[in-house]
Fold this protein.
Amino acid sequence: MLSEIVLYTDKKNCCGCGACVNICPKKAISMHEDKSGFIYPHINNDLCIKCKKCTTVCAFQNTEIKNNPLRTFAAVGKNPSVNRHSASGGIFASLAGQFIKNGGIVFGAAFDSNWKVNHIRADNSDSLKRIQGSKYVQSSTGKTFSEVKKLLDNGKKVFYSGTPCQIAGLYGFLGKDYENLITADLICHGVPGNRMLTEYIASIEKKENGKIKKFSFRDKSIGWGINGSVIIEKNNSRFKKKLWQSASPYLYYFSAGWIYRECCYECKYACEHRPADITLGDYWGIEKAHPEYLGKDGWNEKNGISVVIANTEKGVDFINSYNDCADFRKSDFQSASARNSQLKKPSSSGKRNEIIEIYTREGWEALEERFNKNIGLRKYSSLVKTLIPQKIKRILKG
């Protein structure tokens, strides 16, 4: 009798990408939350035929990435309305929008009606809006890897975006590169579990005695930074509540790096060797790296500026083919990584063990209580920073 399949021996060896779920010919694998709210694959041994496809497909454990950055750019989308609803410079939405106009299909992360984040297919402007903007939580890829393979085999052009481990998982599942596939990975700090986010949202609704209709992790009407907002419906009217990074327990714990899944602290993709054709993120530190791009006659960093790294020749060609929808300006990897530490090393776990232990044992309310007890006057730092004029900020940073 064949022994049972073991997908991982330590949780830090599983990124939850879902490649094993998609490859299983008997649908014997599904994702389940652990007691801390992180998703991990579970095998139904009554269905398993011990083919071991699930173990060989795991890129996180088996595949080393050899790509190196070929080109690095600072970039801003040319459509102001698209940029306003993007986390940084609007590059993903600009590229994806043009890709769809050219007959392609885009995949990215979107909220559902219960504030769960799942990868979905976007082939029009309405569905594209759903995947636009940052989501600081782990998305479920579901069966999108299988859907992508069918589309590619039928000759469709596909643009798939996700965290680096999700992109590596997609390639592991496909088993080869496709000429009609373009991929984008995000400069990822790490991913919390979705349950923690939904409980945080529920706590806001309880305090405000209303219903959240829109959640934004990054609201650029406040300024370019990690400050969010929610639209709350109450008594047949709607109002906006700002979520300052230093005053929001979720955003604070996220920014500190204390609520990610275990593998994030040993992430093999937090370096210059990236799995996707292009890497996208915020160009933090643009004022030092390229002051010539800013100022009166240049870009306004208040509106956000993206970093774009081409990791493959296909990525270089893709940017060259779509450079009419965005303004790409030359940079270099060293400058881009100076204030993007996840391009050099994984996040530090810090107080992660303490935070996750409290959450697992006592739930989200206990984490909020800890936050309110310890934060003090620091909770106002995000608000104070937004009051400083951009010109003064640039001088101070310099």
